[in-house]
């Protein structure tokens, strides 16, 4: 019985100080990261909504068509420039 009486304070000491030796595991994101990402997403979607509201759906479709035409024109210019450079 003397062994248990001597071991009890040691066990109490180990249990009492055990959290100091365990490395904390962080999960999730910090509050600042969450706030910053929320503000950025809100600004992007506010701008997108403002653009669509101002242009209307047909205006947005026209803009997309113009962008596709510009990309096609750039592709032809780049391909003609590369064929002229290799020739």
Keywords:
mainly alpha, 0% strand, flat
SSE map:
Blueprint: H1 2-17, H2 31-86
Poorly predicted segments = none
How would you describe the shape? flat
What is the string of helix and strand elements? HH
Could you give the count of β-strands? 0
Averaged pLDDT, please? Answer: 81
Give a summary of the structure in a few sentences.
Helices cover 83% and strands 0% of the residues. It is mainly α.
Characterization of this structure:
- With 87 residues, the protein is an all-alpha fold.
- It has helices at residues 2-17, 31-86.
- The protein starts with a helix and ends with a helix.
- The relative contact order is 0.04.
- The mean pLDDT is 81.
């Amino acid at each position: 019985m003397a062994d248990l009486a001597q071991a009890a304070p040691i066990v109490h000491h180990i249990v009492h100080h055990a959290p100091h030796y365990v490395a904390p595991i962080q999960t999730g994101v910090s509050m600042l990261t969450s706030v910053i990402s929320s503000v950025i997403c809100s600004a992007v979607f506010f701008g997108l909504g403002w653009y669509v509201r101002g242009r209307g759906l047909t205006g947005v479709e026209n803009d997309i068509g113009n962008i596709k035409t510009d990309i096609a024109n750039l592709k032809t210019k780049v391909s003609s420039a590369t064929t002229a450079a290799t020739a």
